[in-house]
């Protein structure tokens, strides 16, 4: 009788440990999707109820076998890894088999999203390293109190003379854009592409009908040009800039 009770207790404890691992792993993985992905949006992507997803993340419900397969397939993670490992200790970037974009990011000791700064010496490798957690972890990071805590920002040095009145050497703050199709015409964005790296341009959005963004400089010496959707890696909406000198009129 004692042996039977001990075995039952051990099995219950093992199951609870798996549920706890699953809950914290699911919450962690969702937090890494685009910086800020709501439970509703992920639930819609997976085809499950938001209340079900919330219960999974809180450890209040065991996932059905079908939902476990959905989640493991979506995040491209073995089921055993979901249940037995602490994925917060995994240094690999989070990836998915769905349509959601993944943003590699860092947090401060208080678990607040950092603003990573991509210095000039690192700009050349950003188009390749933006999805590499080791590359992102090496970037300087800081907090800015006047930017929203609910959004994700990154800072880039501005180079060239195509976007006056910005001067070369200014630091541009960008707000991460997840839904590219919703970008309004005339929005100024930092556009990350495979060939050009990071450029600051006024964007005209023809993604839905032509599959391109048209990038326009404020300096009329530079002609507008199109960029195909498949060439785009990231979009960051202009959120402000820092310059050590007062702008001239």
From TrEMBL:
Keywords: DNA-binding, Transcription, Transcription regulation. PROSITE patterns: HTH_CROC1. PANTHER family: FELS-1 PROPHAGE TRANSCRIPTIONAL REGULATOR, PTHR40661. The keyword Nucleus does not apply. It comes from the Bacteria. This is LexA family transcriptional regulator. Residues 26-82 form the HTH cro/C1-type domain. Pfam families: HTH_3, Peptidase_S24. InterPro entries: Cro/C1-type_HTH, Lambda_DNA-bd_dom_sf, LexA-like, LexA/Signal_pep-like_sf, Peptidase_S24_S26A/B/C. GO terms for molecular function: DNA binding.
């Amino acid at each position: 009788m004692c042996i039977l009770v001990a075995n039952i207790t051990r099995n219950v404890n093992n199951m609870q440990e798996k549920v706890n691992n699953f809950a914290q792993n699911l919450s962690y993985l969702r937090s890494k999707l685009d910086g800020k992905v709501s439970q509703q949006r992920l639930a819609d992507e997976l085809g499950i109820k938001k209340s079900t997803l919330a219960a999974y993340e809180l450890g209040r419900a065991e996932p059905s076998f079908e939902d476990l397969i959905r989640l493991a397939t979506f995040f491209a993670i073995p089921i055993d890894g979901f249940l037995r490992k602490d994925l917060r200790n995994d240094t690999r970037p989070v990836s998915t088999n769905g349509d959601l974009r993944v943003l590699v990011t860092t947090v401060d000791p208080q678990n607040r999203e950092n603003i990573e700064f991509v210095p000039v010496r690192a700009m050349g490798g950003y188009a390749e390293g933006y999805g590499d957690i080791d590359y992102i972890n090496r970037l300087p990071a800081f907090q800015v109190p006047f930017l929203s805590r609910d959004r994700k920002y990154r800072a880039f040095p501005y180079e060239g003379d195509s976007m006056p009145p910005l001067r070369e050497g200014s630091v541009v703050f960008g707000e991460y854009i997840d839904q590219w199709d919703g970008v309004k015409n005339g929005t100024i964005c930092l556009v990350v592409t495979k060939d050009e790296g990071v450029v600051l341009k006024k964007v005209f959005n023809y993604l839905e009908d032509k599959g391109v963004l048209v990038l326009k400089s404020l300096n009329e010496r530079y002609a507008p040009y199109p960029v195909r959707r498949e060439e785009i890696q990231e979009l960051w909406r202009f959120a402000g800039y820092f310059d050590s000198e007062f702008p001239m009129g």
